[in-house]
Amino acid sequence: MLSLLHIENIAIIEQADIVLQPGFTVLTGETGAGKSIIIDSIGAIMGQRTSRELIRNGAKKGFVSAVFEDIPPALQKQLEELGLDTEDDGTVRIQRELSAEGRSVCRINMRPVPASVLKTISPYLINIHGQHDGQKLMQEEYHIDFLDSFCESESLLEQFRPMYTRLHALRSKIRELEKSGQQREQRIDMLRYQLDEIAAAELKPGEEEELTERRQFFENAGKLAYALQSATMLLSGDEDEDGAYDLLSQAADELSDVAALSKELHGISKKADELRYQLDDLAASVAMMASDVDFSEAERDAVEERLDVIYRLRRKYGDTVEEVLAYCDRASAELEELENADDRKEELIAEYRQTLAAARELAGELSRRRKEAAIELEAKIVEQLKDLDMPKVRISIQVSTQTKLNTHGMDEVRFLISTNPGEPVKPLSKIASGGELSRIMLAIKNVLTQSEDVGTLIFDEIDTGVSGRAAQKIAWKLGEISRSKQTLCVTHLPQLASMGDHHLLIKKSLSEEYTYTDVFSLNEEERVQELARMLSGDAITELSMRNAAELLERAASNKKSQTSGSQPV
Fold first, then answer.
1. CB neighbours (10 Å) of residue 210?
2. Distances in Å between the alpha carbon of 321 and those of 201, 306, 327, 456?
3. What per-residue confidence (pLDDT) applies to 423?
4. Whole-angstrom Cα distance, residue 72 to residue 79?
5. Which helix (H) or strand (E) is 111 found in, with range?
6. Which of 82, 90, 129, 93 has its CA nearest to residue 456?
7. Cα-to-chain-centroid distance, residue 130
8. Cβ pair 531, 498 in contact under 8 A
9. Is residue 401's pLDDT more than 70?
10. What pTM, to 2 d.p., does this model score?
């Protein structure tokens, strides 16, 4: 159960602490007040994708924190497998910090986790029914997901889908091997030529870099030799002229003769001696390097020829020597496969048949489960819809088994409906109105979540397209659901708002520079005021106040009726 939601700098909410309780909580407020922001904030701590636009204008970071109590055993086990623990009091605290740069930091009980972990555990915590769920109900490709959720076929689908992917891969390989014999022979000849060409070159990783470095040496060898010889002559001199070493030695000898005259001259003489020794080492090093410069035209030609061979191979098979060698490995594997194509094809066909048989067996089991579950789900949905003022409705869940496999097995699923006696069942998109779709989706959602461990259900404007008696029935149903699961509902209908055990008002206010949204928990008197606004708008009259009070009295009576098991008044 969600017990506390803390929001900072999210959209127009600067800061809000929302304390939530068991039972049925309604959230109301004028359009644009910020009700959807609260749903988006809850979505953030469920690991849903967020946008930097969610952060309040002018703020560097946004922050959402949620505390959950009464954690189900399945979630405790999941947390243990993830290396996480609940708090000492048994609660789970989830935090998500959003930055203006687009980054986010997620924590569970103060331990950093990826957003994917939030997604993993969120099904145990919260189930949100939004307007897009109703849209999915209109699209038949999603109907199979509703049925699979009811019959708990996830484990079978986890086994089936890798097989389905493998079948596609095997089919592609078999088709490749079934190319005409002439094409195969041409490809074999080409691969043999390429492999022989690469093998003849005897390439080595890193070879090109070494050769390039050697070529650069040859390109600069003349300049290097001249520089080293000139430096040797300037340092050591020759028969006709003294070098730097000779001149420095003469200066050092002269200073040595007068070194005893003062401490300062002694220090200078010592420095001159040190420089003479250093210059002697330098001259020897330069002379040695000059003698090592070995310029060979034959070696330079051999390097150029080798680089040309590598260049031609790189143009054909890869941008680097390593890539050429990698291509050689792939070509060798392909050649082996082609040369043994007939044997390989028979192996693949045998594997394909074996995998297909296993996949069809799993798909058959999926079909059996779905057809059995469809009958049960039909009855449960119809039972729920009777409570939602649709007593004559008929639901038919068609499970059509195909011969061709698909990602769901072999089935196509369609939810068909008849809302009036005597009419045949037809697709939902052809018959159901907006209000009927809302009730059908609520019925399905209630059936699917009854057996789930999730502790909190959130309905975001489930009342779309609904009014009058149907709205009262939806309010009754939500109240019934809230007796077993914490239920939150964003609504614009006073009939639904009056049925809540707790009432939160989302209110927007304006200052000279900013827009703020605050969340208020309403007492009984304040609830009458808010319901009167929902009934008559800003012009609240005594009549609308009396009507609002009457709605609350009737809701209180209905809650007592729910407790006793009787029908609403």
1. 11
2. 11, 12, 10, 60
3. 84
4. 11
5. strand 111-113
6. 129
7. 21
8. yes
9. yes
10. 0.62
Token representation of residue 444: 């399905």
SS3 call for 19: strand
3 state SS of 391: coil
Rounded to 10°, the helix 542-564/524-536 angle is 120
pLDDT digits (tens, 9 = 90+) for 244-291: 888 888 888 888 888 888 888 888 888 988 898 888 888 888 888 777
Residue 162 pLDDT exceeds 90: yes
Report d(CA 51, CA 48) in Å as an integer.
10
Rounded to whole angstroms, how far apart are CA atoms 333 and 342?
Answer: 15
Tell me if 107 sits within 8 A of 94, measured CB to CB.
yes
User: Is the CB of residue 82 less than 8 Å from the CB of residue 120?
Assistant: yes
Nearest of 507, 501, 502, 510 to residue 16 by alpha carbon: 507
Complete DSSP assignment for 335-358? HHHHHTHHHHHHHHHHHHHHHHHH
CB 485 within 8 A of CB 451: no
Other CB atoms within 10 Å distance of the CB of residue 446? 21
Q: Are 352 and 170 in contact (CB under 8 A)?
A: yes
Higher pLDDT, 40 or 357: 357
> 């005597």: which residue's tokens?
422
CA dihedral 476, 478, 479, 483 (to 10 degrees): 140
Residues 39-80 have pLDDT tens digits of 889 989 998 888 888 888 888 899 999 999 988 888 888 888
The structure tokens listed for 225 are 């030799």
* Exposure string for 194-207, b = 16+ CB within 10 A, e = fewer: beeebeebebeeee
Helix 131-138 to helix 143-151 angle (10° resolution) is 110
Percent over 90 (pLDDT), the chain: 28
Using H for helix, E for strand and C for coil, what is the string for 30-73? CCCCCHHHHHHHHHHHCCCCCCHHHECCCCCEEEEEEEECCCCH
Which one-letter amino acid corresponds to residue 464?
Answer: T
